[in-house]
Amino acid sequence: MAARFALGAALLLGMAPPLAAQALSPQQREEVVGIVRDALRSDPSILRDALMALQQAEQEDRSAGQRAAIAAHEELLLRDPADPVKGNPRGDVTIVEFFDVRCGYCKALHPTMEALLREDPQVRLVLKDLPILGPNSVLASRALLAAQRQGKYAALQDALMRLKGEPTEAALQAEAQRAGLDWPRLQRDMQDPALKARLQDHVALARALGIEGTPALVIGGRLVPGAVDLPTLRQLVAEARQAAKPG
Questions:
Q1: C-beta separation of 117 from 91 below 8 A
Q2: Global pTM exceeds 0.90
Q3: How do the domains of the chain map onto residue ranges?
Q4: CATH superfamily, region 74-243
């Protein structure tokens, strides 16, 4: 117990402000360092446990910051009328998904999310294009937002998430026409500066939330990075639903 406390003290010394560090004389600091060295020689697991504790504290701080950011941007996240919605528009649990159609993990998550929407009629899915993987990602996102004006966002998104190759203009034309979109109109709408502004807003929102990649989900005030399987999605939805109950 004393050895662990000594290591904790040493770690704290490394992070303490100058005045706290100056409270120890050079001889006292040398004694503390000696205690730590002896403790590590006798029980190396002390360092492992201390590092794990620091990592856990950092993760908790990061999670708290993300929860605060989510709360601060709740309206933009959950209730932006410009965002396309899948599932039940009045569902009791909302999932916000940031995705890039060229992202392999996003493609892997897509059928899982579709399965969740089929089995749980009370889930509302808000989709936010986050084209971070290059020009073709931006092109595809513009096509999706333009397709929304023709009421075909979901149809084109499904097609692009299943697309094996690159979402080039030729591929977009083929998928758009297959989905019943007016291609000349889609091309015109894709050039609208308002669509570019929407994508820039999505990028800014992702940065504010600390999102570092795609896919990223926001469920019940919690940020979930990366693709998850169906049981995990079910559990996250159940936890969000339980947390939303009064009392």
A1: no
A2: no
A3: 2-72, 74-243
A4: Glutaredoxin (3.40.30.10)
